[in-house]
Amino acid sequence: MNINEVQRIFHPTDFSRGSEAAFAHALKLSLAARAELEIFHVDRHPELIPWSAFPSVRETLIRWGVLPAHASEADVAKLGISVHKSIAGGGDPLHPILDHLELRPADLIVLASHHPSGVDRWMHKHIAQHVARLARKPALFVPYGSSGFVNAESGRLTLDRILIPFDVEPMPLPAIDAVLQLTTLLQAGPASCDLLHVGTDGASLPALQLPELPHLHWESFYMQGEVAGTILDFAAERQATLIALTTQGHHGFLDLLRSNTTDRLLATAPCPTLAIPYV
Length: 279
Known about the structure:
- The chain has two domains: 3-143, Rossmann fold (3-Layer(aba) Sandwich), CATH 3.40.50.620; 161-277, Rossmann fold, CATH 3.40.50.620.
- 29% of the residues lie in helices and 24% in strands.
- The chain is built from eight helices and ten strands.
- The chain has helices spanning 20-33, 57-63, 73-78, 94-103, 127-135, 173-185, 227-237, 259-268, and strands at residues 8-12, 36-43, 82-89, 108-113, 139-143, 161-166, 191-199, 216-224, 242-247, 273-277.
């Protein structure tokens, strides 16, 4: 993910409370990158959905103190971002979302990951994982019920501890690079970055060349155990505010996990997860 190339951020929403935090992250990133924010909804009866059902960018920016009270849509444009809201008909949102991304490619997808209880209509069907995998684009998953690293009420940023779990193949360099760019884009820091290698055969931690930057502090860890559970326990113990990892189709670290384990990692992670495809 190159911050100089993030021109369109795509945020699919089902209008549930589980999507509110994801919208806040999408807006914060669009504002920082001065990018287009596309908010997309799929419904069986799109003609019955009022535009007021979409989350309001202008009202949110006023609440965050970015815009003054009674600001206009023109004032939003002056911030360097543009907002595009669209709706498509359909029962299963997966194919309309992928079709839309084919017509209007995005540089980053920001979406809510499903809650284990399946209370939100879209994400309990694993739509989030399928969209990110099939679109082959960087994706930020914001777990249902989590405020994430962007406070939806104030817009305040808390990105001070980042976890990068990885395996030998693929190497975590794309995820490391994405973390560097993301923290720079959001002017976050200082932040601690934990690199976690989970193994089962006692192998040593692979050697990594890590960039030296004043706003990031690196630590490396090796642990043995079941992959998803070890990552989740480590993230909770270290109070991670972001998990970043590299994926590589069906041969990548995340995709090698069984589907139910992948769902568990994304659904129960205590913080947002940034998945970067290895190209």
